[in-house]
Write a structure and sequence with these properties.
alpha/beta, three-stranded parallel beta sheet, 30% strand, nucleotide-binding, Uracil phosphoribosyltransferase, binds uracil, 33% helix, 14 strands, seven-stranded mixed beta sheet
């Protein structure tokens, strides 16, 4: 990917996102829509995966047919909300390797605190896609990418549902080599680090907590 930021303006993505934003949308609908959008965003973020050719036999004849080249890609869920995106993407890319980065935001400082880290080996020669629905302050995204780079990841991408201008800027400054794919960049962050107008707390909305 050459662009640092790609906003997927496809009407299906935009329509589904609007329903997710509505405060009265149920947990069940939110979860289903997140799954659907995650697949459309994954389609975009994997658009330039390299292909190779394999000899196959159709019922009619032999042909050289395209298949994805190289090692299985890696999906990294930034817990806990990342899991809502991960489920859908795994349906699309079932052979992907999966890792988890557990970070929570200290409500006072808004800084990320790590509580879990488990990722596949050999990150260095795989495409690694980190997923988190909300790129808000960018603090946890930057911290997660820092950790993944320390583990050897070189070909990294970041997939989110919604981003703030502040979060995009922070990621661009810290990790200009990591392209971001999102469905929308909203107006701003509020004083609590929430994206406005946003959709509220993505984790609470997908898991029905509060
Ligand atoms: N995390 C969320 O779930 N929502 C926001 O608006 C910001 C961070």
């Amino acid at each position: 990917m050459t662009e640092h930021l790609t906003v997927v303006t496809h009407p299906l993505v935009q329509h589904k996102l609007t329903i997710m934003r509505k405060k009265d949308t149920s947990t069940a609908s939110f979860r289903r829509l997140l799954r659907e959008i995650s697949q459309l965003l994954a389609y975009e973020i994997t658009r330039d995966l390299p292909l190779t050719s394999t000899r196959i036999e159709t019922p009619l004849q032999e042909m050289d047919a395209p298949t994805i080249e190289g090692k299985k890609l890696v999906l990294i869920s930034i817990l806990r909300a990342g899991n809502g995106l991960m489920d859908g993407i795994l349906e699309l890319i079932p052979a992907a390797r999966v890792g988890f980065v557990g970070l929570y935001r200290d409500p006072e400082t808004l800084q990320p605190v790590q509580y879990y880290y488990k990722v596949p080996s050999e990150l260095d020669d795989r495409m690694v896609i980190a997923v988190d629905p909300m790129l808000a302050t960018g603090n946890s995204s930057v911290a997660a990418i820092d950790l993944l780079k320390k583990s050897g990841a070189k070909n990294l991408r970041f997939l989110c549902l919604l981003a703030s201008p502040e979060g995009v800027k922070r990621m661009r400054e810290a990790h200009p080599d990591v392209p971001i794919v999102t469905a929308a960049v909203d107006e701003r962050l509020d004083d609590h680090g929430y994206i406005v107008p946003g959709l509220g707390d993505a984790g609470d909305r997908m898991f029905g907590t509060k």
